[in-house]
Structure formats: structure tokens, C-alpha cells
Specification:
- With 315 residues, the chain is α/β, with parallel strands linked by helices.
- It folds into two domains: 10-102 and 216-308, 3-Layer(aba) Sandwich (Rossmann fold); 117-212, Orthogonal Bundle (DNA polymerase, domain 1).
- The chain has helices at residues 10-17, 34-42, 56-65, 82-88, 105-109, 135-141, 144-155, 160-173, 179-189, 202-212, 219-229, 243-257, 289-294; strands spanning 24-27, 48-53, 72-76, 94-100, 230-240, 277-279, 285-286, 302-308.
- Strands 1, 2, 3, 4, 5, 6, 7 and 8 form an eight-stranded mixed sheet that branches.
- Helix 3 (56-65) links the parallel strand 2 and strand 3 (72-76).
- The radius of gyration is 21 Å and the shape is globular.
- Bound molecules: S-adenosylmethionine.
- S-adenosylmethionine binds next to helix 2 and strand 2.
Length: 315
């Protein structure tokens, strides 16, 4: 299947990264390389892009799309390990990092990946197929209360308790193997009169996907690590699609900005607080109406940008 994915807020991300032609940039969510190709177009031959994705199918699609560029390093890995990845490449600091979180349209649409509530497929949902935990494990083995909590928190599904209860009743009879079996349970758990907000399985599938791929818990720390590896004046751009993701990014930015109370015109800090840089986006940037019309996925996207301080004398 062709790798189809429209990059979200492309122009805003490229502007936000303030690309230096000879710089080193990391795309921590390479996907179909929709953002990466534009970063590479702004780089000179001495510049470099490091593309990380935990999905080997994305890496292959990106290699194909970027075949004209020789200054790209492809890493099959997790951007939560950014420090380790850069250390292994002998790179100390980078000039910019992009994280466009979540799944790609390709992953959602490719039926055999088990992300989609349409059709009948094996319950999988792993972005990284070398990982052990699958959606089938979550659905068949997790405790009922924990399942309910995941579906509520990550899916914002108000019928989470009923869905978790029915999953547990069903699995007493037989294993839940396919996406269709799970969809049937979800449909049974939500009153018909309340099934008017998109597909009834949408929110539960999102929640299980987030759990399988551990998308929220490490994020705050990952943002801190990204800021840590930024060179002076380097920028971090993060696109989120979920309120919990956005909260983690926002809080990590606020913490990194610190609470320095020195006047802005002082070249270094005398108040004793520590600031690693500044938040460029006081409010997150959202997609323009035209983009939302052409790509409904961009509707919930929020872009936040952080800039590492030029001179970290503020401590
Ligand atoms: C929204 S897509 C990125 C699309 C890309 N920006 C483009 O325009 O083509 C997210 C990608 O990041 C990958 N991904 C998600 N979480 C990841 C993580 N923690 N580490 C590495 N890759 C991750 C997914 O496998 C997916 O390919």
C-alpha cells in the first residue's frame, strides 16, 4: 500500500524551526517524510537530518521519498531515546527538533496494522512491530478497572466502564482476537441514542493505541531531553493531537523556561533561577481553515515551539 500522509502545519513548522542551512536537525517522527523533505530542501550539503521512526514501514517509505538526499541518517528507534540515539551517532547538540506526534494516516489506513475500526483485522496497533505488547494483550489481559481508566483518560469515552465490563465478560467466553470483535463489544456498550458523535469505536481504539504505544507517559521527559540536546538558539517544534499530549508539552516548556525574574535586558541571570530558553508560542498555533478543509486530521493539531537560550548564564 502506498504511504499516504499529509504533513500537518508544514509551513508553520518549517518557519518555526528557523533552519540554518549547515545545521543538524532531527525529525523524531519521520513518518512519510512530509516535513523532512522540506527541512532537507532548506539544508545545504553540509547540513544533516536525522530521521527517527519506530515503524520500519515508515523508514522504508521515507528512504524512498528522500532518495535524492545523501545527508540523511535513518534511525529505527524511539524518540524517547533521543539522547542515547545522538550519543551513538557521536552528536552532542542539534540545531532543531521536530516531533509530529501520534500515528500517520498510513498506519491508520493500513488494515493489517490493526489500528482501524473498519473491517476485520488482528488486534495489533503496534507502531513498532518488534515490540511485544499488542492491542490483543491489552484487551485480553488488563484488569477491568485499568481498562476502564485507559479508555476514559486516553479516549475521553464516557461509556468507558460499560465497555471495559463488556470486554471482560466477552473474554471469559473466548479470546478477543480481531478489531471487529472489539467494535461489536463497543457498539453493544454504548446506547444507540448516544452513538451520534462519529464512529462509536473511535475513542476506545484511540485509547488502546495510546496505551499499546506508551504515547503519553514518557512525553514530558522526552521534551526535557530534547531541550537538553538543543544547541544555543536551537528550536523544538512539537505537534500534538490529544489534550494530554499538549499538557505534557506545555508543562515541560514552562518548567524549562524557568522562573527567572531578571529584567529582560540583563545579559545574564542575577536572580538565581535557571532558564533554558523561551517559549515562542504563548498560545499553541493551530491549523488554518483552508488546511482543515483539506485535511480533517489537522483540526485537533496544536503546535508549540521552544527556543533554547543563546547563552545559558542564567543560573
Ligand atoms: C504523525 S506521523 C508523522 C508524519 C510525518 N511528519 C510526515 O509528515 O510524513 C507520526 C510518526 O511518528 C512515529 N512515532 C510515533 N511515536 C514515536 C516515537 N515515540 N518514536 C519514534 N517514532 C514515533 C509513527 O510511527 C509515525 O510514523
Amino acid at each position: 500500500m502506498e504511504f499516504k500522509h499529509k504533513p500537518v502545519m508544514l509551513k508553520q513548522c518549517i518557519e518555526g524551526l528557523k533552519i540554518k542551512p549547515d545545521g543538524i536537525y532531527v525529525d523524531g517522527t519521520l513518518g512519510g517524510a512530509g516535513h523532512s523533505i522540506e527541512i532537507l530542501r532548506k539544508l545545504s550539503k553540509s547540513g544533516m537530518l536525522i530521521g527517527i521512526d519506530r515503524d520500519t514501514e515508515a523508514i522504508e517509505a521515507a528512504k524512498n521519498k528522500l532518495k535524492e538526499f545523501s545527508n540523511v541518517k535513518y534511525i529505527h528507534g524511539n524518540h524517547d531515546d533521543i539522547k542515547k540515539i545522538l550519543k551513538e551517532l557521536n552528536i552532542n547538540k542539534v540545531d532543531g527538533i521536530l516531533l509530529d506526534l501520534g500515528v500517520s494516516s498510513y498506519q491508520l489506513d493500513e488494515k493489517n496494522r490493526g489500528f482501524s475500526y473498519l473491517g476485520e483485522n488482528i488486534l495489533d496497533m503496534r507502531m513498532d512491530k518488534t515490540q511485544k505488547l499488542t492491542a490483543k494483550d491489552v484487551v485480553n489481559n488488563y484488569d477491568e478497572n485499568i481498562l476502564a481508566q485507559i479508555i476514559y483518560e486516553y479516549g475521553e469515552e464516557r461509556f468507558s466502564k460499560q465497555i471495559a465490563k463488556n470486554i471482560c465478560l466477552e473474554r471469559k467466553e473466548h479470546q478477543i482476537e480481531t478489531t471487529k470483535q472489539l467494535v461489536d463489544i463497543i457498539e453493544k456498550s454504548i446506547p444507540k441514542s448516544k452513538q451520534n458523535d462519529g464512529h462509536p469505536a473511535k475513542r476506545t481504539f484511540q485509547a488502546i493505541r495510546i496505551e499499546v504505544n506508551n504515547e503519553i507517559k514518557p512525553l514530558y521527559h522526552t521534551i526535557e531531553e530534547c531541550i537538553d540536546v538543543l544547541a544555543e538558539g536551537g528550536r523544538l517544534c512539537v505537534i500534538t493531537f490529544h489534550s494530554l499530549e499538549d499538557r505534557a508539552v506545555k508543562n515541560a516548556f514552562i518548567e524549562s523556561k524557568g522562573k527567572c525574574t531578571c529584567p529582560a535586558d540583563l545579559p545574564y541571570c542575577v536572580c538565581g533561577a535557571k532558564s533554558l530558553g523561551k517559549i515562542i508560542t504563548k498560545k499553541p498555533i493551530t491549523a488554518e481553515n483552508e488546511e482543515i478543509k483539506q485535511n480533517s486530521r489537522s483540526k485537533s493539531a496544536k503546535l508549540r515551539i521552544f527556543e533554547k537560550a543563546e547563552l545559558i548564564l542564567r543560573h
